[in-house]
Amino acid sequence: MYSHDTNIRVRYAETDQMGYVYHGNYAAYFEVSRTEAFRQLGISYKDLEAEGVGMPVGEIRTRFRRPARYDDLLTVRLLLKQPTEGSRVLFEYEIYNEAQELLTEGHTLMVFVSMATGRPVPVPAHIQAKLAPYFTDEETAGPLTPPKAPSDAPAPAAFLK
To answer: Is 16 a catalytic residue?
Structure first.
């Protein structure tokens, strides 16, 4: 398993009238986390695109447990719990505040595509090579599956604090 933390300070412009981070900004937080994790691994989105390979979002899910607010310092934890498969990679996220309270969970299923055709292509070998040391043989044996949606609902009272 691979894990990487990225810190993001909530800016005023990212909040809504209630003072919470606007829900649409979480996709951008996930993107910042993916980009920084890849950079730490020595993988460049810019170079990938120059090679003619894009990585659009095929699926996104976000679950809000507690609100993030203006000036909070967030830790966006990116987790790769499963190795890449075919043309896909599943990124999971946990967002914590400075008190280490879990605020948000989510995932994005990314698909590697040819920028010329828009069709899926295998995960580039150099990316597989960078990720391979983080996975055991048991982890590489199963199919790539997004986490199941949780059955428990977030406590509304958490948003009233």
So the answer is: yes
Domain count, the chain: 1
Whole-prediction pTM value? 0.86
Give domain status of residue 16, yes or no: yes
Convert the pLDDT of each residue in 66-120 to its tens digit: 999 999 999 999 999 999 989 999 999 999 999 999 999 999 999 999 999 999 9
User: Does the pLDDT of residue 142 top 80, yes or no?
Assistant: no
For 49: left if phi > 0, alpha if psi spans -120 to 50, otherwise beta; the answer is alpha
Whether residue 70 lies inside any domain: the answer is: yes
**CATH number where 26 lies:** 3.10.129.10
Which one of the listed residues 16, 47, 137, 152 is annotated catalytic? 16
**Which helix (H) or strand (E) segment is 111 a member of?**
strand 102-111
**Do the domain assignments include residue 153?**
no
Alpha helix (H) ranges present in the chain? 25-41, 45-50, 125-131, 137-141
Helix (H, G, I), strand (E, B) or coil at 72: coil
Q: Is residue 7 part of a domain?
A: yes
